[in-house]
Design a protein that fits this description.
- This protein has 11 helices and no strands.
- Helices cover 78% and strands 0% of the residues.
- It has 343 residues and is mainly alpha-helical.
- It is globular, with a radius of gyration of 26 Å.
- α3 packs across α5, α7 crosses α8 and α9 runs antiparallel to α11.
- The protein has one domain.
- 21% of the residues are buried.
- The two termini are 27 Å apart.
Amino acid sequence: MASYRAVDAVNPAIDHTRRMLFKPFDLGRWLKLAFVALLGGAAAGGGFNFNGNLFQRWGGGPGGGGTSFHDLWEKFTELISQPQTLVVLVVLVLFLLAVGLAVWWIRAVFSFVWIETVAHGDVEIGASFQQHRHRGLPLMGWYIGITVASFLVLAIIAAPIILAVMGGWFNPGGPPSVGRIVGVGLVALVLLMAWSVVVSVVQFLTCDFAIPIMYIRNVGVIAAFVQAWDLLKAQGWDAVIYVLLRIAAVMVMGFAGFFAACLGGLIGAVPMAGLLGGSVATLLAGTSPQAFIPALLVLLPAWLALVLAIQYAAQTPLLPFSWFIRVFSLKYLGAIASDLTIV
């Protein structure tokens, strides 16, 4: 009977996961490893009431009769019409862009910290981050390239549709043509699905093979991706079996992740409700439309911290699944290329 390396890698990956996480079980270490897995694998408030007086100050102060949606909409339009609003929006966009790039870079660096953690069973996070920080920018650039390419593909698909709508192609001299609408919709859907498959394959190869190759062979992301593609192509049906087993593992993790997400949601429900109330009260109940400017500097980091905390709460019980999937890919990689063996 034929033996497949992908199948042979399953039991060693399970044994490695059991040995590293449960023998012995250390809660403090578990929480530390879950933090690394959150960033490297695959983001309170209180004292705000939600009664009818939440936006009372917009109604003219105590006794002013509260606030209607119309009043809030007038305040919103007043805010948008202010000259300072454009400046605030530009600052806000730049701030969000900077935060997004920073988070992207941190997660890219932690991809290597995560591999090192799995390979050695533990890691000094700060030292490992410093060691691998130079690899974060190329990997971040790779992911940005994938994202930009996806937007370009979306624009290429959407542009002809928009031009057809503007030119009246869908309703030539009468009511809209259902056949044309359905036909164009199906073509667009097929193209989007095809591109989604391409992106999924690229991300899969990057996560499972290219990043470990970058870590072990100390090569760039493009060279690592090419090497990963060549390695996987050479395996034939064995690579197909690996992909199927990998999908099965992700499906099991997804099933467990549903309950973990519920747990994270329950933990974060109260602080999220408080922060939401605080955000609404702060942004809309100021004495002037510009009162929200300094509040943004507090609320945006608070929201980011809350989202990370909820994700961390959901990731913590999923650590064995994340660990197994990472070990499984490393075991298989070492089986198909001996110089890539690290676990």
